[in-house]
Amino acid sequence: MAQPTNPFDLLIDQVRQAVREEVRSALQQGAAPEGAKAEPEPEWMRAEDLAKKYKLPKSLFDEKARAGEIMRCRPGRHILINVADAERFLRSYAAGGGNGKDH
Hints:
Blueprint: H1 7-29, E1 44-46, H2 47-54, H3 58-66, E2 72-73, E3 80-82, H4 83-94
């Protein structure tokens, strides 16, 4: 005896197939998903922006930049901190490296 089929199974399969095709089409066209960053991360940021991004005190970035542990520059009014250098420092600090400098 054949098992009774759910009438919604066919509809669900058709919806799944349509979603697969839309995703495949979007990926082939290079479309970014909603909420994805359209711009690349900046190389330099202000201490305030780094503090917001990492949810850490602004003074941490100011002090480490002033001490020379994080690369900084002052192209105008604001002091900018190198994001890659700040991330390197944070990784080293989180790993127990203390001051973040490579030995």
